[in-house]
Amino acid sequence: MNxxxxxxxxxxxxxxxxxxxxxxxxxxxxxxxxxNLSVIVNKDDKVPEKYLKVFDKxxxxxxxxxxxxxxxxxxxxxxxxxxxxxxxxxxxxxxxDISYWWDQLxxxxxxxxxxxxxxxxxxxxxxxxxxxxxxxxxxxxxxxALFYFRKTPEIEAYFKLVGVMFEYWEKFYExxxxxxxxxxxxxxxxxxxxxxxxxxxxxNFLTFxxxxxxxxxxxxxEDWNKYLTIFFxxxxxxxxxxxxxxxxxxxxxxxxxxxxxxEVIELYENETAIRLL
Length: 277
Prior knowledge:
Order of helices and strands: EHEHEHEEHEHEHHHEHEEEEH
Number of domains: 1
CATH class: Alpha Beta
Oligomer: single chain
Distance between the termini: 28 Å
Helix content: 25-40%
Largest sheet: 6 strands, mixed
Number of strands: 12
């Protein structure tokens, strides 16, 4: 079965295409197998030629008529070119090989979500500061920034349910949630759909470093990238990252869009060019 990564990069307020470009390069450098990244883009956006060299497939869709462009996040099953897919948020980078994950994913379940995340020190995050809606409503603590599925009839039905819930999210919030958020949340919808459809526990090895500031330290309420020491490393053809001298060992969800500076892109371009020779 063909396997690969998929990300949604529909430009608007931020240049998500550039983030997907950096993500694709980080996968090319760090992964020993299944490093292909396909990207979902606005139909009218022009993808730079150099980006095309590291993307597996470019999948054009209509541009949502909203600033917060998550309306197509329910279409992963329909749009993925792969039999087995790991979905990623665009604002992520990989520094270590997780190819062995593919050997375990799908052995027991056809869909797996990240259900616990870590901070830059590698500690499991226990704070629900950003997830009180999950605690109040006893929703499974699922993250759509990194999850896996493979194409089966049951998973297709699940995504159809998610699609209906995306369209009528306010009605589902009203019916099933106490003190619901006032905006559409992919994490909330996917978690609620999972609670309604699957009778199972969500506990597996999937994880990533989540750089929401308050997950790093309860006293860190400002942007983490303005207060923590950041430096990239390069050794034996690999690129690494240290935050406050802690090596980053997991997929890195940097959140803060200004983290991806031009010198970071250049660092990846130089190393990727060597790999693609």
